[in-house]
């Protein structure tokens, strides 16, 4: 005889674990992760507090899974990135940079709410990193280099660090109330990466 489904899932195909992750993800997306408690997640999910520990080793595991789900949800709503060997190189790099900026704007607030919880961030980093924008940009640039559309000596890692740094600078500065927002036109960043600075 199959075990009875939880009352909150009677009309839902998800498992209780998936329901808990989705609930925590919704809460992170709506209000961030600062002060998010097991009790608040359980109440929002419609279950008793202790139920979470039947499906997760601890709160950190649940929050890391919810954070991964949040990133995946944001990524799924974004346009696909250009493939190597297609289109104009500068336009493609601009698309990657615009994608990175949009992604960082959408997900960094959730991460900043977890800065005081390094165990959650460590669990997130240890998990499946599929859909990592930095890795995708690095793979794209390496493929363009292999195709001969970038110089054979092109330093892909430094180009990725520059693009990522721009995303962090632009987005993080908006989180400080009196900080001046840097104005870094995407076109200028693309030119600096493609042509280097002498």
UniProtKB/TrEMBL annotation:
Which residues belong to any copy of the HTH tetR-type domain? 14-74
Keyword set includes Transcription? yes
Identification of the protein by name: TetR/AcrR family transcriptional regulator
Phylogenetic lineage? Bacteria, Bacillati, Actinomycetota, Actinomycetes, Pseudonocardiales
Q: Which residues bind DNA?
A: 37-56
Q: Which UniProt keywords apply?
A: DNA-binding, Transcription, Transcription regulation
Q: Which InterPro entries match?
A: Homeodomain-like_sf, HTH-type_TetR-like_transc_reg, HTH_TetR
Domain of life of the native organism? Bacteria
A Pfam family the protein falls into: TetR_N
């Amino acid at each position: 005889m199959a075990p009875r489904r939880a009352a909150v899932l009677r009309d839902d195909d998800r498992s209780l674990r998936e329901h808990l992750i989705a609930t925590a993800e919704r809460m992170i997306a709506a209000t961030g992760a600062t002060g998010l408690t097991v009790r608040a997640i359980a109440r929002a999910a419609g279950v008793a507090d202790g139920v979470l520990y039947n499906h997760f080793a601890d709160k950190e595991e649940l929050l890391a899974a919810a954070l991964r789900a949040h990133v995946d949800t944001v990524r799924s709503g974004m346009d696909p990135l250009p493939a190597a060997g297609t289109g104009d190189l500068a336009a493609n790099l601009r698309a990657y940079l615009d994608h990175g900026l949009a992604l960082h704007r959408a997900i960094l607030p959730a991460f900043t709410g977890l800065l005081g919880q390094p165990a959650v961030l460590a669990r997130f980093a240890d998990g499946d990193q599929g859909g990592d924008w930095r890795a995708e940009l690095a793979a794209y640039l390496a493929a363009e280099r292999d195709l001969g559309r970038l110089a054979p000596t092109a330093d892909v890692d430094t180009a990725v660090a520059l693009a990522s740094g721009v995303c962090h600078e632009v987005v993080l500065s908006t989180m400080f109330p009196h900080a001046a927002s840097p104005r870094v036109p995407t076109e200028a960043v693309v030119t600096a990466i493609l042509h280097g600075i002498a």
